[in-house]
Design a protein that fits this description.
The structure is a homodimer. By secondary structure, chain A is mainly alpha-helical. In chain A, strands 1-2 form a two-stranded antiparallel ribbon. A two-stranded antiparallel sheet of chain A has the order 3-4. Among the domains of chain A are: about 45 residues, no CATH class; about 90 residues, Orthogonal Bundle (Arc Repressor Mutant, subunit A). The longest helix of chain A has 26 residues. Helix content of chain A is about 55%, strand content about 10%. The first copy, chain A, is elongated. In chain A, helix 2 runs antiparallel to helix 6 and helix 4 crosses helix 5. The interface between A and B is large, with 81 and 85 residues. Chain A binds a DNA duplex through helix 3 and helix 5.
Chain lengths: ~190, ~190
DNA sequence: AAGCAATGATTAGCCTCCTAATTAGTTCCT
DNA sequence: AGGAACTAATTAGGAGGCTAATCATTGCTT
């Protein structure tokens, strides 16, 4: 949830004024950027707030969703490394999340019999039923958050956001950074 | 930076398929929601990444910006409570951030002479110059992130996001309220 | 067959955020 | 004047991120 942002976004006129002292400031970019962060943060926090009522955090929920076979309602055994990869966090983070999920009886770890370096994590029956008790509310919650937009507006929003997602940064201009972070070496 | 989300967003067909088992799922809402979170997170992380090169975090940066008089380039003394309020975090969080900023010589704390319960935090000259050395890059960074969108698209995006920001939640339905989905009482 | 590099998971230590409890100082009320 | 109630800031402890270092197992190489 940790965003930490301005509670009140600056008005557009203020941005225009600020350009006088800061010629690098692009008012329309800044406005779009701040609103994007604000909207994303708000959506995130609302979900987090919903999940917390079920003793769940976004991280825990994500892990459980990854272990859950949506169609069959079954548990899929998965390695921590795979979970980390799919969730987009480090393995160390997965270790911590699985620790608490296991403590709460929602998942179990066991050694992969073929390669004892690996663990296999999967939902317990209790984990499955807990997850299934949360999902309907979670879906409703998403639907409510997007309720202010019509189908058409949602399509437009998705189209615009997709222009931003994964857009390659000019990299050179962001900072003198030769071939480091943007490279394909994750 | 802590978001923890699916690295690969589900394709729309998958969402349609999932509706079969989960009737509460609204595919277009879900798609819009996931893309919003993804785009917001990506923008946030890029900024965080930029700031970290200057030994700065979003939290530290926000505090410094709040202490900075944009027009005059001066330091504005502010109480921790006021900072917490404007930044949208708790006072305890501000205490921690100001601790490290003070340790690094970027801000100073002093007692308010009128009311010794209160502290006044303000930027040091070093804090001002550090901030001013970061700002141009920060502004460029925002501009680059929004570069894929035209002026018109930015306006549209802001308009759509504003429909979401601060939209009142039906509240009743978000709470644990299973069957009565259609009934919105307030 | 023994050693060494690679791979998977964990641990350790740090940061930012939270809530709840504590400490310090002010104000208000007889 | 002396407490009671309030308000500001901090501390304590927890969660979830991160990176870097460590431990365990595998498998390759000689």
């Amino acid at each position: 949830m940790p965003l930490l942002m301005l509670k009140d976004l600056p008005r557009y006129e203020c941005l225009l004024e600020a350009v006088r002292r800061h010629p690098d400031l692009d008012p329309s970019a800044c406005e779009a950027y701040l609103n994007l962060l604000r909207a994303g943060d708000e959506a995130y926090q609302r979900s987090e707030n919903f999940l917390s009522k079920h003793d769940m955090s976004p991280g825990r929920f994500t892990v459980m969703m990854l272990l859950y076979d949506k169609m069959a309602g079954k548990a899929i055994p998965t390695t921590p490394a795979d979970l980390a990869d799919k969730a987009g966090v480090t393995r160390a983070t997965i270790t911590g999340l699985v620790d608490t999920l296991e403590r709460d009886g929602l998942v179990v770890r066991e050694h992969d019999p073929r390669d004892r370096r690996m663990m296999l994590v999967h939902l317990t029956p209790q984990g499955v039923s807990t997850l299934e008790s949360i999902l309907p509310g979670h879906f409703q919650q998403m639907a409510q958050q997007m309720a202010p937009l019509s189908q058409d507006e949602r399509r437009t929003l998705v189209r615009l956001l997709n222009k931003l997602i994964g857009a390659p940064l000019p990299a050179a201009a962001v900072e003198a950074e030769p071939a480091a972070a943007a490279a394909h070496h994750s």
